[in-house]
Amino acid sequence: MLRAVMVGCGAMSNGWLRAIRDTETLSRTVEMVGFVDLDPGLARTRADEYGWTQAQAGRDLGAMLAELRPDLVFDIVVPPARRGVVETALNHGCHVLSEKPMATSLAEAERLIDLAQAAGRLHGIVQNRRWLPGIRRARSLLASGALGDLTAVHCDFFIGAHFGGFRDAMEHVLLLDMAIHTFDAARYLTGLDATGVYCREVNPKGSWYAHGATADALFDLTSGATMTYRGSWCAEGLRTAWEASWRVIGTRGTLLWDGNEGFRAERVAENEGFLRAVEEVEVPPLSEALTEGHAGVIHDFVEAVRLGRKPLTPGTDNIRSLAMVLGAIESAETSRRVAIETLKEAA
After folding, report:
1. Is the torsion defined by CA of 44, 313, 144, 189 positive or negative?
2. Which domains does the chain have, with CATH numbers?
């Protein structure tokens, strides 16, 4: 069993705790020994309602880590508090799995990467879309080369989400709080990274957000491909999936994907004619069973710790998705194209 402390016991902690409690491979390998929150009463409530009644609850992370010496810290705090939590956990010899975004700036993200390397510990980031059947199937099709070389990716995200609370007052609310899921999914789907972006942000009439509820972005990708993103968090009616809807174009065909498990793919079947004849392409099924969503992320991270390997979403990879978000925000603020620098991979 790996012993874990959770930091941040608000509403988002429920998804993590359900995954740990209800997923057999996690319930057998993770023991929650501590819960930390600015509200110690909330920390105690979370521990008790999910059955970890013997776990400690409090508000002082450093003191709890010094006393309990856990293997893992699960970091679910608000982004401005993330750096302090991750630094404290790494300094106490813990591996850390954080909610997104991994940092509030690239400099801060690079510092956390350096700290994790110096400590010899893993720092992973939750990008739960990578553990959904649809993206795994779409990725398999693209990797097979059936559609040729990738030339363009188009992503649409339109949902009227009435959260209330802190999101209503956020700046760049769509880009900062949600778009990273689509950006990271695009990187995972294609194996490509962004090299530049032009983005326009608007807070349209009728928006219940204070700032930046819609955005349109054009990314340049490695290999010369491009990516467009059209998104809105105040679009009522005809919602897309939370995973967005996609058109992925290759030199020999196109994939339409609804973000869940709805697919349609065609490729050219002849090499002559004004409009070339096309044929349907089957999107392959999953090759093996998949632990999905948050449970999949946590399970992968736990196994990485147990087996001494990298998780699928370490900070060294996730910084590239964060760079897309921060680049889009800078472009929206300056009304110019922003170059996204190549970020060094850790050894």
Report:
1. positive
2. 2-125 (3.40.50.720), 132-282+322-339 (3.30.360.10)
